[in-house]
Amino acid sequence: MIVMKFGGTSVEDARSMKNSIQLVKRELHKGPIVVVSAIAGATNTLLSSARLSVEGKLEQATQQLSDLHERHVVVLENVVETRSTVQQILMELKKRFEELKNLCTGIAILGELTNRSLDAISSVGERLSSMIMAEGFKEDGIGTELVDARSFMVTDDHFGNATPLLDEVELLTKAKLSPHVRSNRLVVTQGFIGSTHKGVTTTLGRGGSDYSAAIIGTVLNAQEIQIWTDVDGVMTADPRIVPDARKLKVISFREASELAYFGAKVLHPSTILPAVKKNIPVVVLNSKRPQSSGTQIVENPPKSNAAVKSIASKRGITVVNVQSTRMLMAYGFLESIFSVFRKHKTPVDLVSTSEVAVSLTIDNVSRLDDIVNDLREYAEVSLYEKKAILCIVGEQMQTTAGIADRIFHALGDINVTMISQGASEINMSLVIDEYHVTEAVRRLHREFFEPVPELEIFETVEN
Ligand code: ADP
Ligand code: ASP
Ligand code: MG
């Protein structure tokens, strides 16, 4: 059994969806489970219509929803030919969009938008794309079951960024999906969405479909988890920043995790975790260029001589600088600081300490005021906003001399305000002004990858 996850661009219009259907057909002998995202842009539109509604711009919100409705109608009518099926799904679409408009009206009247309502609204994208795609498979003569992910992806009630409750998810996924797999029926389900114990819809955070796919693949012991997207694989940098970025043929779970965590959007940061547990390879593939072999993410890739494999960047970072007002680094000081972040459920990305101060970075500032208030009880606190993290990753970095020197030399006049050699020793992370990110990534890429090192793991992407 394998899992095939299709991202938004792989189902963005009828042509892409049909193409993805063909990709699944090629793999039918492997018993695929299809996990699908919303059509490209749908989640953004749904969230924006909710936000417009709470601002009282209901007309604009309704217009956006009508346009999105129309996009789905066009996809449907070009993927499915059987008239009666089209009629039936058109009715479903109409119902869903009426519900959405009613929800938005409610939000506008109350002037209140909760994370719970946002999840109810943003989950609709995946529910619609999966419904249409499932009909596309049936149209092609493939015995297909559309299974609502909310029937097995049980999560906590942290709306907007819910955590799947893995033991329960495992039992339910086996119960709901395995019988169909055993009887050779193709399962189509949604990424990104889940449900609380009480049956309230949740979402796993932006980009969460990758995570859903990895969880499903892991609990069902898949041979492989395929992530179909719009780039040839994991590359030496985000190709939107560095158009000449090279594809990596293979990287390790650890490298992929660091890259995803520090901003490589090609994978949701949690994707690799479940796969590591059972050592299931994750493969990133391009649905627009399926002939390309993609990137294999495995536990132990063959040793390579490349010290640096890829550069990631993450914007929107705030640095919190905490200076002890009491004894210099009294024992317990670090513990008190971290307990404040824990109390306010705010993850810390990087930490760097000196004799008298600790610098930490966070990207979620929703509780920052409370955090600062608590810290000020025993420390001086300063904040630096609009920062970015640059993360340079490679398993061989720990054994290669001179990398830091090359990094700083390449960055030249770009000021680095914080440095952290990852505890895992496979990465080095730097904090710079957000404003310099694009230039910094390009300079580092030039230093490490131009000209491309003549090494097995790099592959030039031909267009
Ligand atoms: P999907 O909708 O298929 O999940 P995403 O937009 O979430 O696709 O992720 C793919 C995008 O990730 C690419 O278009 C690319 O711009 C971005 N990206 C960022 N860093 C990298 C990287 N190192 N390698 C490949 N793509 C990257
Ligand atoms: N559709 C969701 C999003 O745009 C989930 C995903 O694409 O993975 O964030
Ligand atoms: Mg994604």
Could you give a quick summary of the protein structure above?
This protein has helices at 14-26, 42-54, 58-79, 83-110, 115-122, 124-139, 166-182, 209-219, 253-261, 272-278, 333-343, 368-375, 403-411, 437-449; strands at 2-6, 32-36, 144-147, 186-190, 193-195, 201-203, 224-229, 247-248, 250-252, 282-286, 295-298, 310-324, 351-353, 357-362, 379-393, 418-421, 427-433, 458-459. The protein is of the alpha/beta class and 463 residues long. The strands form four sheets. It has an eight-stranded mixed β-sheet, with helices on both faces. Strands 13-14-12-15-17-16 form a six-stranded antiparallel β-sheet.
Strand order across the biggest sheet? 3-4-2-1-7-10-11-9
Uncertain ranges: none
Strands, count: 18
CATH architecture tag of the largest domain: 3-Layer(aba) Sandwich
Morphology call: globular
For the termini, the CA-CA separation is 32 Å
Range of strand content: 15-25%
Give an overview in words.
The chain has 463 residues and is of the alpha/beta class. The protein has 2 domains: 2-230, Carbamate kinase (3-Layer(aba) Sandwich); 310-450, VC0802-like (2-Layer Sandwich), CATH 3.30.2130.10. Helices cover 40% and strands 21% of the residues. The protein is built from 14 helices and 18 strands. α2 (42-54) packs antiparallel against α5 (115-122) and α8 packs parallel to α10 (272-278). The longest helix has 28 residues, at 83-110. It is globular and about 70 Å long. It starts with a strand and ends with a strand. The mean pLDDT is 94. Bound molecules: adenosine-5'-diphosphate, aspartic acid and magnesium ion (MG).
